[in-house]
Write a structure and sequence with these properties.
Helix content is 27%, strand content 33%. By secondary structure, the chain is of the alpha+beta class. The protein is globular, with a radius of gyration of 16 Å.
Length: 228
Amino acid sequence: MITPRRLCFLLLACAGILAAPCTPVPAAFAQAGNVYTDSVTGLEFPENLGRMARGDTQDFEKNMPGLGTSIAYFANDASKAHIYIYNMKMRGIPSDPENSIIEDELKRSAGEITAMEDKGFYSNVKELDSGTATMGKEGMPRIRYKKFSFRIKDGSSHVSYLLMTGYKGNFFKVRYSYPETLGEPGDKDALRFIAALGKVLKAGEATTQGGAKQPVEAEDQPRMKIRK
């Protein structure tokens, strides 16, 4: 069972995604040919997705079973993404984003964002949109999402996508945030990154089914298609 204390730890870790000031992407985050493979799902995360460079990975599972791992991606314009693969010590997590288990976990995670407002990390939190979307072209994986806006302690405003689906008995959660000042180009970059993640999931599915794995390119990703 995941205790409230453990959930609080992860909650505060997530808050640090935006509470800390932006720093340039370290060169070590983008080493040529460097692919991170998640040990539980076998998913392979390349050094670049969209225009983001892969950063640090964290193993929460070792000390807090059920909380899994996280993979970070960063851009020099202060856009940040974190991918969480975990199971909350649950069995039978479905891969269908329309399933109520996925929907409930997304709602719980969204509650963490509003809790950040209660704790003083965020202010003026607003839910802008929600639904289920295709991660790129037709035939790519679908994912459930919510879109928020909020301010952080330094007064800057941000837009954030929270996305959730299931993969190989785990929750697959994505948090992508960017400064509101980036406007429409920032949102297009977010959708391009999410579409690139769709290719990561699709490649993993192909491997599971015995098909040939297709490389995930860093540039020119298809747009995520929002359909409510």
